[in-house]
User: Fold Ribonuclease P protein component 2 from Candidatus Acidianus copahuensis.
Amino acid sequence: MIQMIFDILIFVWLLFLTMLFFSKKQINIKKIYNKRNIKAKRYIIFYIVSENKYFGREEIESSIRSSVKEFLGRMWLDISNPKLILYIDNEKRGIISTNRAGYKVILASIPGIKEINGKKALVVPLRTTGSLKKAKKLLGIR
Assistant:
């Protein structure tokens, strides 16, 4: 009997608190933005250490893509989608474009590049930036 009275009192108390809560409309529903939904770009500045002076843009991009595919597979290659935006032949420096989800994958797989088109080469990442303007400024291009 006492237990039943106690249960009824708790039920009434919880009902009272619920009605009080809803009457003041304190429910604030905020839309939580997922960072993966935001298509933010990342730009990786790199340089190439090699005895050979000239590499083609397609050769460099294909070696980067094959390195990512070899290191983490085709799925991460599709997610990161690396693109060679700019390459300066005489300085052997360039910019790779990727997204926020894939820039760490690119940074992890770039040291796996040991040769480009059959010629020994080493690709060294220098810096990651969030804007192309800053990346060009770091390369010395206005």
Q: What stands out?
A: The longest helix spans residues 2-23.
